């Protein structure tokens, strides 16, 4: 099912599709072989204007709206998840929060470098005792002469081991906690007392690494506080809608690629003298995929349209994130089934997609948390 887009959006999609197929796809297997993203990939994305797309032009960004940005994510996610992660990290919470709320010094120091892909940022909220329940964080920042003293432990922080700066969420007022007692600090790599204590590999591609980071009497100057004390959660909330819709569109792109590969394989693979595509068992899987991808796209595009029009979509972005992340799990599972043994072989894209898409149901607010938020909107209550 074709979704009609205005000509300018269609052009952005077409260009991103061409770029993905010709320029990015050859790097996908290189990223898997090396277990990291070569610098040339970041340079390629920068040279083609795909970094910092959501940031204003004064910061060297593309000044792009949510819809064109989402279409680029959808196209890139047809190839390798790392491409979407690079793009979102240069257009996501860290650079946007600093651009919006940073002092002129903080903006000069970080934003342009992040937008150009020369400076890597990470966002550190999750702790061993606080994941979905982010308000339970314990990392503490205490006011001292000339700055703040940080103590605490964060884990599962994407790319923190290579980050030049980490935006760290810490409790500054234990009485208020999540209600105005959490602040955001910009902590530079190499700050005494700040250590990377573990690097975790996940079920997904080896290039995706999460880090545990520790702060032990880590002093940061007053100039490291982002915005005012107590505003930390507000900054994180501002990026929630974009983050969830970014996951949703990434899931749609990945699902579409899996569906195309499944159809192709089903047409050319013969068993018992006939192509798989002629078997009802296989056709039904493909039909279910088609319906679910179309439904995901309709829901997500409409929600993005409303967000861009300034409408309050309530828990709409949660619906998109929930539906799309669960949908892509089903589509890629069917893709493995349709490909048989081939779908399980390392180095074949279907196998990698199967592992990579599992992240989507946990990161950026797990499925259960999205359901909780949707139900709250429906019932007006706060649940258990
Ligand atoms: C690939 C990846 C990248 C990440 N990157 C970052 C990052 O850069 N920065 C960062 O700060 N964090 C990051 N995270 C951490 C992520 O935000 C957390 O893993 C996520 O919020 C879930 O927290 P948790 O792992 O502690 O699980 P828990 O909160 O312990 O939840 C475990 C399970 O219980 C469910 N659950 C929790 N509470 C309820 C409830 N009330 N009712 C019903 N079910 C419930 C959850 O949905 C989940 O299924 C990343 C995670 C992943 C997987």
Topology overview:
Blueprint: H1 7-34, H2 39-47, H3 66-76, H4 81-89, H5 93-101, H6 104-115, E1 121-124, E2 140-144, E3 147-158, E4 165-171, E5 182-188, E6 194-201, E7 209-221, E8 225-226, H7 232-238, H8 240-268, E9 270-271, E10 274-275, H9 280-308, H10 316-339, H11 349-356, H12 367-379
Helix pairs in contact: 1-3, 3-8, 5-6, 8-9, 8-10, 9-10, 10-11, 10-12
Bound molecules: flavin-adenine dinucleotide.
Flavin-adenine dinucleotide (FAD) binds next to strand 1, strand 3 and helix 12.
Features:
384 residues; alpha+beta; Butyryl-Coa Dehydrogenase, subunit A, domain 1; Butyryl-CoA Dehydrogenase, subunit A, domain 2; Butyryl-CoA Dehydrogenase, subunit A, domain 3; 3 domains; 4-stranded mixed sheet; 12 helices; 10 strands; globular; binds flavin-adenine dinucleotide
Describe this entry's structure for a reader:
By secondary structure, the chain is α+β, with helices and mostly antiparallel strands. The protein folds into three domains: 7-92, Orthogonal Bundle (Butyryl-Coa Dehydrogenase, subunit A, domain 1), CATH 1.10.540.10; 121-230, Butyryl-CoA Dehydrogenase, subunit A, domain 2, CATH 2.40.110; 239-379, Up-down Bundle (Butyryl-CoA Dehydrogenase, subunit A, domain 3). It is 49% helix and 16% strand. The strands form three sheets. The protein has a four-stranded mixed β-sheet. A hairpin with a 2-residue loop joins strand 9 and strand 10. Bound molecules: flavin-adenine dinucleotide. Residues 123-126, 131-132, 156-158, 202, 210, 359, 362-363, 366, 368-369 line the site of flavin-adenine dinucleotide.
């Amino acid at each position: 099912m074709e979704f009609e887009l205005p000509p300018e959006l269609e052009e952005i999609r077409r260009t991103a599709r061409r770029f993905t197929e010709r320029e990015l796809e050859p790097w996908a297997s290189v990223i898997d072989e090396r277990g990291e993203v070569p610098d040339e990939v970041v340079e390629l994305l920068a040279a083609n204007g795909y970094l910092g797309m959501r940031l204003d032009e004064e910061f060297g960004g593309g000044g792009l709206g949510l819809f064109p940005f989402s279409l680029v994510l959808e196209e890139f996610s047809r190839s390798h998840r790392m491409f979407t992660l690079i793009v979102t990290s240069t257009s996501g919470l860290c650079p946007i929060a600093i651009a919006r709320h940073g002092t002129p010094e903080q903006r000069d120091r970080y934003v342009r470098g992040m937008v150009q892909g020369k400076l890597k940022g990470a966002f550190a909220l999750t702790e061993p005792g606080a994941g979905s329940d982010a308000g339970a964080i314990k990392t503490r920042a205490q006011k001292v002469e000339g700055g703040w003293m940080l103590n605490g432990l964060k884990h599962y922080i994407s790319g923190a081991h290579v980050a030049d700066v980490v935006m760290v969420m810490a409790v500054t007022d234990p009485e208020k906690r999540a209600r105005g007692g959490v602040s955001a600090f910009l902590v530079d790599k190499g700050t005494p007392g700040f250590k990377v204590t573990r690097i975790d590999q996940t079920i997904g591609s080896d290039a995706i690494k999460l880090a545990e980071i520790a702060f032990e009497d880590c002093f940061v100057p007053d100039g490291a506080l982002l915005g005012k004390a107590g505003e930390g959660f507000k900054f994180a909330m501002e990026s929630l809608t974009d983050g969830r819709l970014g996951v949703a569109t990434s899931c749609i792109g990945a699902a579409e690629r899996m569906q195309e590969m499944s159809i192709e394989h089903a047409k050319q693979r013969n068993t018992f003298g006939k192509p798989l595509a002629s078997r009802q068992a296989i056709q039904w899987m493909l039909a279910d995929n088609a319906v679910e991808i179309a439904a995901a796209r309709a829901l997500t595009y409409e929600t993005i349209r409303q967000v861009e029009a300034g409408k309050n979509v309530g828990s709409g972005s949660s619906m998109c994130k929930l539906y799309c992340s669960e949908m892509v799990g089903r589509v890629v599972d069917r893709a493995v089934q349709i490909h048989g043994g081939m779908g399980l072989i390392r180095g074949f894209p279907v196998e990698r997609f199967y592992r990579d898409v599992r992240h989507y149901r946990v990161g950026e607010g797990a499925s259960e948390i999205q359901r909780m938020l949707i139900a709250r909107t429906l019932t007006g209550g706060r649940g258990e």
